[in-house]
Structure formats: structure tokens, C-alpha cells
Design goal:
Elements (H helix, E strand, L loop, with lengths): L2 E5 L1 H5 L9 E3 L10 H12 L3 E3 L4 H11 L4 H4 L2 H15 L3 E5 L3 H10 L3 E2 L10 E7 L5 E2 L15 E7 L3
Parallel strand pairs: 1-2, 1-4, 2-3, 4-5
Antiparallel strand pairs: 6-7, 6-8
Helix pairs in contact: 3-5, 5-6
The structure holds zinc ion.
Zinc ion (ZN) binds next to loops.
């Protein structure tokens, strides 16, 4: 099943690449995207059918508020934030494979509590500022990112992913 991405305003502002047609957001997000470049990307994605705006029925927002009521985060979430989380919740409920894209720490934290997958744009290096390199923790041999095994072909030690800065 293809992943449905649920996009926060920060996904647009921080340059998330909308590669598939399975990108979704809520109406309230539009007012949060103010800078010209992000706005252009947002409008183009809408025009080209790569982005769908969906509203969320009140009952899903109420459910989300119920689930997170014990967390202090509920107070820090704005209405657009809450609706975005509710959209992800609703779409999982509909049987979709959902991933939220947001660099907002409060949103990420809430999603963690709700067991909904997420990733950030900046933190995941999608923007291209950072990249990953696979390195053997034993002999320090470097592997290409597509090396398919978890251990080193030379010494058999574990391979870990190291974050490297690309454009410098
Ligand atoms: Zn090795």
C-alpha cells in the first residue's frame, strides 16, 4: 500500500518534496503558509493534483482531544495542529498507511503518543543539506547507501548510519 503523507505547514516551508499524489492537508494550513516560495509550491501541488485538502469531521477532533487529554501537549497545540493530527487519525481509521510530515516538536510528540508514524523534513535530511553514509563500526569501511546488509562484508561488524553534511 502506498503511504499517504499528511503535511503540516512546516513541510512546505522546509521544502518537503511532493513526489507522489498521496499528499494531504487540512484547510487551516493554508493560512499558515505565508512566504512566497512555499506558497507557490503549495499552489502548484494543488493545481497539479499532488495535494488534496480534506476537512475533518468534529468527531475525529473530539477523539484526538480525548486521547491526548492527559498529555500537556494538548494545551500547546493550535487548532490547525489539532486538525492536522485528526486528519492523520481519520485517514488511519479509514485503513490508509499514513505518515505525517512535520518539524513541529509538539505535533511529533502528540503523534508518538497516538502511535501515528511521522518524520520531519529538516531532521530527516529530505531537504538535501544532510545525507547519510553507512559505516562499519569495526573496520570503518564506508558503504553506499544502497548496500543491503546490516553487517560488514569485510569484518562482519555492525554497520551504522552516519549523518554527513553535504553542501559545505
Ligand atoms: Zn568492517
Amino acid at each position: 500500500m502506498e503511504i499517504c503523507y499528511v503535511l503540516d505547514a512546516s513541510a512546505f516551508i522546509n521544502g518537503f518534496q511532493l513526489e507522489s499524489k498521496n499528499n494531504f492537508t487540512v484547510p487551516e494550513i493554508t493560512s499558515e503558509i505565508k512566504d512566497f516560495e512555499s506558497r507557490l509550491k503549495f499552489d502548484a501541488a494543488l493545481d497539479e493534483g499532488r495535494l488534496t485538502i480534506r476537512d475533518v469531521p468534529e468527531k475525529y477532533i473530539k477523539s484526538v482531544e480525548g486521547i491526548i487529554s492527559k498529555s500537556g501537549d494538548v494545551l500547546r497545540l493550535s487548532l490547525p495542529d489539532k486538525k492536522l493530527i485528526s486528519l492523520a487519525y481519520m485517514m488511519s481509521d479509514e485503513g490508509n498507511d499514513v505518515k505525517v510530515i512535520s518539524d513541529d516538536y509538539t505535533i511529533q510528540n502528540t503523534l508518538k503518543i497516538m502511535n501515528i508514524p511521522y518524520s520531519g523534513v529538516i531532521t530527516e535530511g529530505i531537504k538535501g543539506v544532510y545525507n547519510w553514509k553507512k559505516v562499519c563500526e569495526g573496520c570503518k569501511k564506508e558503504y553506499d547507501d544502497d548496500y543491503p546488509f546490516d553487517d560488514c562484508e569485510i569484518c562482519g561488524s555492525k554497520i551504522f548510519k552516519k549523518r554527513i553534511k553535504v553542501n559545505e
